[in-house]
Write a sequence for this structure.
């Protein structure tokens, strides 16, 4: 995810031709060159996963029963270490709220071009809004305010379990990275049908910059992840769940024990895909570095140099989205 650090509404600028409007054109039979994507021809096409992405039961992760909680912490640790992607069920966020967020996002994309003109300087076919520590969405819709709050609660619970899985105190990540003022972004992405999906890409391969990213969509598949060096399709097989991925700052904090995973979005020629993402990061002024308990000078020296999260974001903003190039720049 590529993000602007403006304290105002974040709606990044796209080309003057809406992708959505372009896709609706009756004379569209090929992908214009400005939207073309040259895939790596040496890589085989993505395949379906043979093993299911791990599923974390949030109700057990936060259970008062220490045995149930301990078992789920172990499963979460393995999911972060082996996959970097996992599904979260029984998370407590009402399904009605999740559906409403998808519906309101669709309503934004369904605005006429005339209605979208107020967003011309900031973007059109995807929407990014800073929702914490300050809520910067115009008209301050209650559904988005509530959704950002509830997803922060889920994120905090997951990071508590991750902290314990790393052998740290449950609240270590929360304190060290100042999660009370953590930087949170809401993003909605629209992927209309494409006449030549093999020549286009919804979003290029990249890793996310924060700690954990939570994703839902409208039931249309299109996400691919890189697992053990190969690309795999991620299907929508568990309703009312979040798909969560570990990201760059968590890889740094865990001193490489957990990996931020490359992923990208593909398009199809039949139906529109809508995804809603909430990216959760440390406080902008938090200095992110390998946790001291995970570092020993002889056996496990620090693999990354300390850097303020704000500085990392600014570095990422100055680079074209792609792979894990920013993370590679701060290796010790």
């Amino acid at each position: 995810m590529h993000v602007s650090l403006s304290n105002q509404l974040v709606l990044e600028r796209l080309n003057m031709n809406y992708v959505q409007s372009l896709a609706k054109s009756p004379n569209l039979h090929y992908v214009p060159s400005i939207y073309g994507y040259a895939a790596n021809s040496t890589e085989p096409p993505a395949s379906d996963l043979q093993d299911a992405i791990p599923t974390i039961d949030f109700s057990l992760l936060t259970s008062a029963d220490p045995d149930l909680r301990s078992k789920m912490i172990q499963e979460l640790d393995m999911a972060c270490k082996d996959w970097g992607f996992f599904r979260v069920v029984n998370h407590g966020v009402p399904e009605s709220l999740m559906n409403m967020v998808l519906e309101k996002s669709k309503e934004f994309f369904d605005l006429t071009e005339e209605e979208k003109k107020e967003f011309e300087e900031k973007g059109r076919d995807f929407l990014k809004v800073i929702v914490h520590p300050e809520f910067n969405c115009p008209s301050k819709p209650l559904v988005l305010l509530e959704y950002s709050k509830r997803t922060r609660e889920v994120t905090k619970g997951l990071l508590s379990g991750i902290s314990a899985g790393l052998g740290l105190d449950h609240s270590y990540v929360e304190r060290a990275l100042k999660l009370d003022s953590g930087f949170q972004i809401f993003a909605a992405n629209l992927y209309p049908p494409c006449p030549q999906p093999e020549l286009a890409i919804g979003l290029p391969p990249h890793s996310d910059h924060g700690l954990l990213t939570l994703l839902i969509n409208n039931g249309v598949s299109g996400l691919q992840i890189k697992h053990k060096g190969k690309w795999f399709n991620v299907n929508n097989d568990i309703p009312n769940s979040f798909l969560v991925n570990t990201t760059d700052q968590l890889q740094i904090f865990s001193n490489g024990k957990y990996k931020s995973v490359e992923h990208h979005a593909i398009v199809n020629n039949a139906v529109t895909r809508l995804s809603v993402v909430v990216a959760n990061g440390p406080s902008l002024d938090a200095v992110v570095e390998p946790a001291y308990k995970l570092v020993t000078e002889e056996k496990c020296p620090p693999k990354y140099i300390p850097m303020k999260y704000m500085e990392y974001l600014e570095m990422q903003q100055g680079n074209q989205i792609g792979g894990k190039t920013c993370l590679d720049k701060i290796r010790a």
